[in-house]
Amino acid sequence: MTGLWGISFDATPISGVVVEFVKTAKHFADRGVPVVLDLGYDIKADKDAFFRPYQDEAQLLPEWVRLGRIAGVEQIPGYDRDFVAEVLREVVGRGEGTHLLPRIDSIAERLSDLIVAAWEANDIEYVLVENGTLPENITYTKALHLAIEKYGRNRGRYVLWRDHDLMWQSEPSSGKYGVYPYPATPKPPNSPHIHYLALHDQARRKTLEWAPHLRAIDVLPNTFTHRKATIHTGNADFRSDYGIPARAPLIARCTRIIRQKRIDRDLHLLAGIPDAVLFVAGDTTESPDEYRRLVALARQLGVTDRVVFGGWLAPHEDDIGRSTGCKYSVRDLLAHADLVSFLTSFDYESYGNPVGEAIASGVPYVTTRYELYDTVYGSKGFRAPLLTDDLPDEDFIGQVRDLLTDEEERAEMAEHNFRLGERDFGTARDLLDRLVLVPMDEQVRLSVILPVYNEAANLPAVLDSLYHQRGLDRSTYEVVLVDNNSTDNTAEIAKTFAAEHPDLAVHVIPEPEQGVSCARRTGMQFASVRSRGRVNAEERFYLVSADADCRVDEDWLYELFVAMESGKAAIGVCDYYYSAEHFAGRPRLWDAITKTLRCRAVTFALFGGFPDGKGFAVDRDVHDRVGGIEIFYQLQDGRFVNHLSDDWDFGIKVRGSGEDIGYVPRSRVEINPRRVDHAIDEVIAGRAYGSDGIIVMRDIRPQAEGTGADLTEEQARQAWDFSVKDFTPKNTILPVLLTPSLLDDDAVIEFFGPSLAERLGRRIAEIKDEMRMTDFTPIHSYKTPSYRLYFEFADEIFARLRATVGDDIGYPPPLPPCLQDVSPDRFTEFVKYYCEDRESGEAHNYFGNGGVF
């Protein structure tokens, strides 16, 4: 059975790095993947563990982790602890030691062959590297890079490379790893086999500043199981076993006993709280000098009898499964603790796992404001006393003493942090599923994203149409169905379809936040991340949006794919149509619909249009670069709701970034007539999706099927007015507003006419300067200037539409009553006031609020 090989550059049996490895590896183990862990004894020089045989280390880890290491390393001439220490000191720290470079390369080559042999012997399918970039042993890092390429032939992205510490966040003041740009540290290669993981956004940003060539790097925060630690029969004797008085306030310090952790601060804190006990959970043998120093300091401060050096405790069982090596776990300590302490060095910790463990266990904590504390915890609203001086002063000691004596305050603080942690620190399962556990075949070039909510009636036909696409082999595309909290059997239908059609990859994933925008965003992120694991990851890859209530033509996907492959556009926009048979006997309604479609055909051919969720494709790299689908929120009846126009806003972001949008008229989607029939009175009034500026998704299923009655002449005129008012600012003005250079295109000049094109360009520049707008990305930012330009040029634009689409387009709908009485010489001035008045929502209502047809 294929397995996972983990390698930790920490060279200790239990540490925060090892615990995070085990948490991550458990996702693989739960799926039956055997897990092997190399503790890195033969990597790091300062742990005095080089070539030391494993003894009882396995007892500290869950039984499903098997310890392993690279056989034959000790037989490589010149590779030992002294060599690694010399390279770190001379080459990395001082930037010297050029005489060592040939030996480094020679040993790395030998090492790489041994690593490959170990992976082959263990039938390894996945590799997880922990902290391999930190230049403690650049020889081993280079060997890993070589081994990954050798073993990776004909494989996709099978390596997760996670850095818990990097040069700029691990004691940079010491100069141990040199100075920026760290020339001796091997930069991570942009390998088709490696997906890099950073612990937080700041680490990812700094990594890309140092190594901007990386393309596959995501944030995977440390994760904690949120379950409050409690006293139970298995840990009830914890205090008595360690000689801790039952009522004594207990401060827990879970840490390695090394100087950088600053346990001396805890001893000074303890001296100021005479009735408290400090429990230090860590290996006293790792740094004997530091342990002796702390013991002497405790004696000097008179707290020896209130300090318990308890040795290693097992990691949390909830995170890694059963551990047999220790009677008690960290969670058992936290169940009895009143407070968790983390008074670490300023520039040492990159994440601060003990803080996260305290939050997840429902225990209050105290900490220093170390360098990354605000990034990981403080900025998110977690509450705790913070030490800002070198040693605890009277003020800080007083805060801690008060917290220990105020049970109600401790409970309130712990509950606040616990709830916040539940929201902000989920598990890694979702991202891991995207990265590795749901692999993508190397032939896949397109992912079709299908958001669904209670679509059991429509879904079989939609999936069947996706299955029977012509022109493309089914191995070249997949379907990602995003179930948005359906209460019917939508998900079951999709899973059954997938099982019955194994030649088409169909993935069903959930999105708990309600709204088609949220579902589309999740599906695209899912496909984007996984697509970077393909062997041919540098090929152009496309994310394709579809709607579950619409039908795609047989050539829909093929035409999109051909257009994207042959052109430079970042987005390809489909053509949309209604079937005339659904509107038989309703000629006035059908006339209003077809006029809208004819106008769209003309302007889309000129400007490319904007993506609509019913059907568009986007280049994955562009999708990622602009930040993907962005959700805007609005207040409706006192609560936040997500805005419906995510597809349009996404197109605006793409076009605003300088990319092109292309119209693909041969890629066609039939719009479900229920979008018109669900509330014909709202269609007529132009409020199909909202009013007063609030545009939200609604369930648009009609209560009863049927063709319905035709519109009256007055209703048909009203429906057309709202349709064309919604259409014109978006499809004839917005494209040139975002990309004024379009007005230099011969076809666009011919459409507008030279005079109108020139005046439009000049007026756009004036409005941009007046509004100081350079970014029209947010939906309300692009609406206002588009609306203003519409009123100023409506007569001329409609004249051009009549000339190019047909006389039946007619003339602009009547002005709002408030503008009809404005004198011509002040018309432009009052248009500005009207369009800028967002509080009333009048302009939004006038222009139809989200479209009609």
From TrEMBL:
Residues 447-598 form the Glycosyltransferase 2-like domain. The keyword 4Fe-4S does not apply. One of its GO terms (molecular function) is glycosyltransferase activity. The keyword rRNA-binding does not apply. Keywords: Transferase. CDD domains: Glyco_tranf_GTA_type, GT4_PimA-like. It comes from the Bacteria. Residues 238-416 form the Glycosyl transferase family domain. This is Glycosyl transferases group 1. The lineage of its organism: Bacteria, Bacillati, Actinomycetota, Actinomycetes, Pseudonocardiales.
